């Protein structure tokens, strides 16, 4: 009898632990470049991402997951398919999306920005699709809104959208090899080309803050925070750096200690970067959502850059507003 009671107790403890813990990664399968949204309409969290696991970053569709508590995530299915009639101008390389919720004339609307491979050629370009629900159905604009680089190099990928709480204006940011930003027009599906600004942080090395891609912008206590990814997405050294500005279009002052998030080989955590940021509504509680390389694919011959997984950890600030280095975990 004593053995039976002990066994029952052990099972109860095990089930209790399973019920309480939230493991990283938080999504099943391979996903990358995560964008998180808290919807005022549904009171749920949503994650949109690059669908990973395809050779040559060849994913062609976007899925969305939802959650009430940031722990248990529900697969809401495919919300945009670049090989379907949904997107007439592109046929693949569905990469690095972002989304913004707007209340317009009493109705919630969702603006989903992403990069794709244009059928007409010319390199990666950025499009937008809209919906009245965070899970869709989404209707594509029918043509890209960013088609060329403001400099003589780089790719038009890794888009971010930000609404300035001070002015109410919305901005779009993008760029691999460079960082650019511009005001969105009130329609949210076109940019004011007169405001295009090259924001690329200068200097740094692959060990510190040399800009590569994935700009992300948020606002806190009078400062605009600019985060970006360093090195290559298939490198264990892929990591997040940051700077701040007093304006949503810069200039950016690189932080004295710029590294926000970097690998921890002892925990088999490699290449944690390409992030989005969440402020829990009504609080000063912040989270960083990012991807990392699946530890079983870290060798170059296994294509680490296409076997990535989505994770979430807390983001903390020092009293002076600087960001404390994030401790990446295998459990939130």
What are the SSEs and their pairings?
Elements: H1 2-20, E1 31-38, E2 45-51, E3 61-67, E4 74-81, E5 95-104, E6 107-116, E7 125-131, E8 139-140, E9 160-163, E10 170-174, E11 180-183, E12 197-198, E13 213-220, E14 223-230, E15 239-245, E16 253-261, E17 270-279, E18 286-293, E19 308-315
Give a written overview of the molecule.
The structure is a single chain. By secondary structure, this protein is mainly beta. It is 6% helix and 40% strand. The protein has one helix spanning 2-20, and strands spanning 31-38, 45-51, 61-67, 74-81, 95-104, 107-116, 125-131, 139-140, 160-163, 170-174, 180-183, 197-198, 213-220, 223-230, 239-245, 253-261, 270-279, 286-293, 308-315. The strands form 5 sheets. A 4-stranded antiparallel sheet has the order 1-2-3-4, with no helix packed on it. A 4-stranded antiparallel sheet has the order 5-6-7-8, with no helix packed on it. A hairpin with a 6-residue loop joins β17 and β18. The longest helix is centred in the first third of the chain and has 19 residues, at 2-20. The model is unreliable at 1-21 (pLDDT under 50).
Mean pLDDT: 93
* Number of H- or I-type helical stretches: 1
Order of helices and strands: HEEEEEEEEEEEEEEEEEEE
Overall 3D form = globular
Poorly predicted runs of 5 or more residues: 1-21
Number of strands: 19
Strand line-up in the sheet with most strands: 1-2-3-4
Straight-line distance between termini? 38 Å
Strand content: 35-45%
Specify the helix fraction band: under 10%
The SS-based structural class is mainly beta
Q: Let me know the largest β-sheet.
A: 4 strands, antiparallel
Cα-based radius of gyration, to the nearest Å = 20 Å
């Amino acid at each position: 009898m004593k053995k039976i009671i002990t066994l029952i107790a052990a099972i109860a403890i095990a089930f209790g632990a399973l019920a309480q813990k939230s493991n990283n990664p938080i999504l099943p399968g391979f996903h990358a470049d995560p964008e998180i949204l808290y919807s005022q309409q549904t009171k749920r969290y949503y994650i949109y991402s690059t669908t990973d696991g395809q050779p040559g970053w060849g994913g062609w569709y976007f899925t969305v997951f939802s959650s009430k508590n940031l722990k248990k995530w529900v697969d809401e299915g495919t919300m945009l398919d670049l090989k379907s009639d949904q997107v007439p101008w592109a046929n693949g390389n569905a990469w690095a999306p972002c989304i913004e919720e707007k209340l317009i004339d009493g109705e919630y609307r969702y603006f989903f920005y992403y990069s794709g491979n244009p059928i007409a050629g010319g390199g990666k370009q950025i499009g937008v699709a809209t919906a009245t629900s965070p899970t869709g159905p989404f209707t594509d604009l029918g043509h890209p809104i960013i088609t060329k680089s403001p400099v003589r190099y780089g790719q038009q990928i890794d888009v971010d959208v930000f609404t300035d709480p001070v002015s109410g204006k919305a901005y779009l940011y993008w760029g691999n090899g460079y960082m650019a930003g511009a005001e969105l027009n009130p329609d949210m599906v076109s940019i004011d080309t007169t405001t295009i600004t090259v924001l690329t942080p200068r200097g740094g090395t692959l060990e510190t803050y040399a800009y590569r891609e994935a700009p992300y912008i948020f606002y806190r206590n009078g400062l605009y925070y600019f985060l970006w990814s360093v090195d290559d997405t298939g490198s264990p050294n892929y990591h997040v750096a940051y700077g701040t500005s007093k304006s949503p279009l810069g200039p950016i002052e690189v932080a004295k200690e710029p590294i926000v998030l970097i690998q921890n080989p002892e925990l088999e955590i490699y290449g944690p970067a390409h992030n989005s940021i969440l402020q829990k509504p009504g609080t000063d509680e912040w989270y960083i959502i990012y991807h990392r390389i699946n530890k079983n694919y870290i060798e170059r011959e296994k294509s680490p850059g296409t076997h990535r997984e989505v994770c979430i950890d807390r983001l903390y600030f020092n009293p002076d507003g600087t960001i404390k280095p994030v401790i990446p975990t295998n459990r939130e």
